[in-house]
Each structure stands twice: as structure tokens, then as C-alpha cells.
Sequence to fold (436 residues):
Amino acid sequence: MLQETTARIVDRARFETPIVMANDEHRFVVGEQLRAIGIDDATIILEPFGRNTAPAIAVAALAALKRDSGALLLVLPSDHAVRDADAFARAIDVATATALRGGLVAFGITPDRPETGYGYISIGEALPEPKGAHRLARFVEKPDRLTAERYLAAGGYAWNSGMFLFPARLYLDELDRWQPGMRAACSEALGEAKPDLDFIRLERNAFGRCRSISVDYAVMEKTDKAAVVPADIGWSDVGSWDALLDLGGKDATGNVLVGDAIAIDTRHSYLRSQGRVLVALGVADLIVVATEDAVLVVPKARAQEVKRVVAELEARGREEGKVPPIVHRPWGSYQRLDGGDRFQVKHITVRPGGRLSLQSHRHRAEHWIVVNGLARVTCGDKVVELRENESTFIPMGAVHRLENPGPDPLRLIEVQSGRYLGEDDITRYDDSYGRS
Fold:
């Protein structure tokens, strides 16, 4: 979804290179996903912790003004779906003209059902120019079912998409007006930021002075410069698994099947497998998602409650609640395949030119088997190169390093054994990525 969002704004005749605001923990997956679609010049700014959208947009606005004193900022959450790209481009045209006339523009989605999971925008009178833009009368919190039905019947309401188009300087001026001190804190956080590989790390203490608040509450609900462009663009914020059921290509019985999934006498269900075969028999209105490390089964009507699942996993100390199946690192990625008492198996991928840190482990030994590609292995004073089907052993406590000197990705299987296998059992002596 990050890739799809970025692909909407790759027209370099119209857009500058993107500015991506991301949490520090997501830095490598963001970088990898962008590189995979040929975006290697994005400005990726890392927040040390979340402070909601108002400070994030402020930092992006400050960064944009360094490029262009008249910058316009198109604000796009990375987890939205837009099915009608042409209609979205036309809406951006109207929003651009509105912003150039001094408006802070929200994109309002034309509703097609009495949705209770979205906030709403009350659309005011039409602006004289440009055609298609309106004053934003007010924001409305997520309604109950009867209220949503009334909004739909009355007209004049739109879903609040969370997408905006702002003159960067005007947004910061309004932020000064309604949130005193936030702009100064963001400016200091960006001014004292440190480069780290392809990323920019905001200064922690200054950014921490920002109040955690959304752009809606911080500015848009207060300013007299708010405008809205109603848009029918096939939009969804994909805020729950059942949204993917609506977006997917349903079969004759209303099912969406992704991956190795089979539905037998099953209706109106979303079945997704990212590995082994998933078979559903005689069920209806279910969401079933099988990833490499977990299986979720939930009635479609309760798909919005998945946060409870994550909270329960974390409360039980389960890694599945906080560690994704594939963990990205600056040199590539690894995926946990299996594990038990005193052993763990991982699939490691090292990109061409990637090299892990020179390191040692106090509590575990490792066996490496090359699946494909070329591995250069340092272990103590020895340096060897391994090819497909060759292997090596790294004793406990040995100073070692893994590199990929070849032109293709290196894939290997790592078997760890020992009394403690945590990721924090690592001592780094030298690191190309500044982690030693």
C-alpha cells in the first residue's frame, strides 16, 4: 500500500520527490519498499516516537519549504486505496487551485453507504473559484447508524479521507495560531536532525515537546481557511480486514481468496493465506488470515476489533504481537521459520553489496547453509567464500561477518543453537551502518 500510494505521485513533471514521515522502527521496510519500485531519492524523516499527524505534517512542511518557498504539500496516508486515479488527479487539480487562493484543503469522499467507521465533513457553500471547491462547514465525529443514514439521505456530507493539500507556509502559520510552540519544536527537531544512511533522524527532545494531536483537531477544526473538495475516487482507508473484502475481486458467492486458499460451501468471506493451504468449509461472513507466524479468525462484523488481538498477544508476551514475520535490516531481511527449546531457524536474505556487522554472540552458535548466491564469511582470522549448497559453522563467541559480494541476492538458512537466542545477544565491533 505504501508503494501504491507513492506510485500516485511519481509524475515528476507535477510532483517533487516525496517526503516520507515514518517511525524509526519502520525505517528499513520503508526504504526497501520504495527502492523496490525505483524510488531511491525520497526524503525519509524518522520520528523517534509517534506524535500523530499535526507535528508530522509540520516537519514535512518545514522540509518542503527548504526546497521551495512557495511549496504546496499533498498529504497522503500510506494505507489508503484509491481505485480511480484519473478522478483523483482531477480532484488534486481543484485542490491545488483552491490552495493557491489561500485555502487549507481537505479531500471529502462522496459517501455511497451509511458508514459508521469514518468521520464526516459537512460541506458548506460553493467557493466562487475554482469550480468544485466548497467551504468546509464543520467536521463531524463518527456517527451511529441512524445518524449516518440521515447524513446520506440529506446530502451535503462527505467522509473525511484524512488526505489534504496545504500551502506549506499557510499551514505552519495556522499552526502557530492554534498550537503555539509546536512549529518551533518541529523546527528545532528538524534543524538538529542527524543523517543516518538514507534517513533523517529528528532530534528526540525537541520533537518530544510536541503535543500528540491530529491535524483535524490541531488546525482544521479551528481555522477559517478550511475548504473541502468532494471527490468520488473509489477510496477506502483500509482500516480493517473487511475493507479488503470490499476492495477485492469477489467470486460468485461473495468470497475473496488470496494466496493458497480454497472455499467450499462458503459465502461472503475473506480468506488469505501467505503460506500453507487454507481451506474453509461451510462458513459465512468470516475473515480468515493465515500468515507465516499466526492465524486470525474473526466474524466480519467484528473485524474492527483486531487491535484487541494485538493487545492480548502483547499482554501474554508473545512476539507475534510486535515482531513482523519478515524483519528488514539495512543489509536485507530475515524471516523466522521455526524454533523451539535451544534452537531457531531463519531464512536470511542479503542484498548485493550488503554486509552484516562484524559481531559475536555469547550464548549461541550458528550454522549457515547457502541456498543461492555468493556468501563471503569472516570467522576469526579466516575468510571463505561459499556458493549454493555449501555451509559453514560459527562457534559460540567467534567474531564473524557475513557479506554478499555478488550481483544477485544471497539467500541462506541459518540454524541457531544455544541456551539464549534473543536478538539482543550481539556485540558489534564494526558496522557499515553506524550501529557498532
Notes: The chain has eleven helices and 29 strands. Residues 241-306 form one domain. The two ends are 33 Å apart (CA to CA). The chain has three domains: 2-236, 241-306, 326-430.
